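[09:14] KT: can someone run the structure on this one? pasting the chain below
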Amino acid sequence: MPEKYVTILKTKCDADNFKKMEELNNPEIMEFAGKFIEHCSPDSVFVRTDSKEDRDYIRKRAIELKEEKPLKTEGNTVHFDGFNDQARDKKNTRFFMVHGVEFGSHIHAIDRDEGAKEINGLLKNIMKGKQVYVAFFCLGPVNSDFSIFAVQITDSAYVAHSDDILYRPGYEAIKKDGKKKGFFKFVHSAGELQNNVSKNIDKRRVYINLNENIVYSVNTQYAGNTVGLKKLALRLAINKADKEGWLAEHMFLMNVNGPNGRKSYFAGAYPSACGKTSTCMVEGESIVGDDIAYLRKKDGSVFAVNVERGIFGIINNVNPSDDPMIWEVLSGGGEVIFSNVLNKNGVPYWQGDGREIPDSGINYSGEWTKGKKDVSGKKLPHSHNNARYTIPIKTLKNCDDKLEDAKGAKVEGIIYGGRDSDTLVPVFQSFDWDHGVVCVASSLESETTAATLGKEGVRKFNLMANLDFLSIPMGKYIQNHLDFTKGLDRVPVIFGANYFLKDSSGKYLNGMHDKRVWLKWMELRIHNDAGAITTPIGMIPRYNDLKRLFKEVLDTEYSEALYNEQFKIRIPENLQKIERIFEVYEANAADIPEMVFAKLDGQRKRLQALRSKIGNYVIPDQL
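[09:31] RB: done, C-alpha cells below
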C-alpha cells in the first residue's frame, strides 16, 4: 500500500478517527479509503465503528445538516430527496464494459476507460467543505458462509444513517481478521447542494466496476441510487455468485406455518407491483426478509439468508387494515426514516394511509397546498408515489427468529409471482425444477396498469424479477439456476402466483387476502399433504382442499363456481404468452440454453393437445 494514502488519512482524520482506521490493520481498506478521500477532498473524515456512540453521532449529524428533520414521534425523522431525484436512475446506471466480454442487450454498459474518466472527473474535489463518513457493514449475518463485507464512503449523513438501519455492522468482524479481502466498495457524493438536495441532477451517475467490486454514485440522494449495499450490491453479488456457484436473488424470505407447529421457509421473487411485500407480510406467518436473499447449497438442501436487517419499503397504501404490523411500527415510536411524504406539524402523511389529507404542509416539492401543480400543470400529490419508510426488521412483531441465523433458513419452496389479467391461474406448482426455472421463473411477466402508464395490458418481461440487476448474460444466469440443484437431496419446489386475474367484466377474481390460502396450499404441497390436478402448465389445487383452507384460514365459504373461473386453463392466452417469451429468447439465441426452448415448446404442445381434445378454455373437472 502506498505510504501516501496513510499520510492522506492522517491529514484528514483526527487522532481518534485515524486510530479507528489503523486498528483495522487492513491494507485493502486503507488504500481504498485513502485513494478516494484524496481524490474527493473532504474537509474531514469520520470513521464509523460498531459503537453506539458512532451510530448516535451520524443520526445527530443528519439532523444538524438538515438532511433529516425530527418528527413529533420520538425517533422518527423525515428526509426529502430532490424533486427530480425520486427513484432509481436506470438510464445513468451503467457497468464498466470489459473489453472482449459481451454482456448482452439487457445490460446497460459504458466503455471502461470512458466511464472511469467521466466518474473520476465528477468526483474530483466534490466533497470539499464536507465531512465524509467511512462505514463498514456485512451483507448477510456476521460470521456466516454467506457474509460479504462492505465499506461505504459517503458525504451524506442521511445515507450513512440509512445504511446503519438496513445493514449489519462489520467493523469489529473486519478488525478481527486484518487479512480479509474482496470487499464490496462504494463511493457516494450527493454533490453540490441547493436547499439541502443534490443540485446537479443532470450529472447524476451510478457506475459499476465489476472487476474491482466498486460502485460510484454521484449527484444524487435517493437511497436506491446511494445506499450502495442495496440493489447496487446485488449487481456485484450476482457476478460474484456466478463465479462461486451460489445465487444472489431479488427475493423475500419468509416462514409459512404448517400443521402441528411445522415451519416451512419460502423464497419469493415478484416484479414491482406484483404483491411481493404483501405476500411476505401476510397475517399469521413470519418474515425473514422482504427484498434480497443469498442462496447456497448445504447439507443436501438449499439455505438462504436475508442480506439486510432492515426494510426500505414503499409506503403508499400502508394503512391499519391492510398492513397492521407495518402500521404499528410506523406509528408506534422508535427509529423510522420517512422519505418524500408530507410533513404537517411533525406528523407524516402518505397516499392510501386512510387518514384525511391535510390542506398544506412540507413535501418533496417544498411548501405544499392542495391543488399545487408542477411546471407542466399536473397536480402534485401530497406524498410522492415512491415515498418510502426505512425501519429495522426486528421492530416488526412478525420478525422470524432466522433473521440472524448464520446457517440461514432451509428453503423448501420458491414462488415467482407475476401480474396478468387474463392468463395464469392464481397459484400453481411446476412439474419439476427445470420446468419451474424455464416456464415459471424465466417466463415471468408483469402487466402494466392504466393507473401507472396510461396504457393497460402491456406485458413487461422480467426474468426472475431480477432483470434490472443482472451483471451477467441472461443465458448464463438461467443456466446457473438449472445447474444449481445438481447433487441436492432435497430440491425446493417452484410455484407460480398471479393475484391479478380478472373476469370478463374486469373484476379481480382474487380477494386481497386470498394469498394467505395460496401460501397454505403451497406449504402443504411441499410436504405432500395436499393433492393436485395435472394441467399443461403445472399442478393446480383441488377444489375440496381450497374449500377447507378458505374456511380454516379466512373463515369464508369458497364456491366451486369461483374455483372453476379462477383455475380455468386459458389456452389461447397461455399460448400467446409462450410466443412472447420465445421472441425474447430468440433475440438472444446465441446465449440461451437449449433447454429453455425445449421446455417452452413442450408446454406449447401440451396446451395444443388439450385444446384439440376439449377446447380453448378448460375447467379443472375436465382434466
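[09:33] KT: thanks! The radius of gyration is 25 Å.
[09:34] RB: yep, looked fine to me
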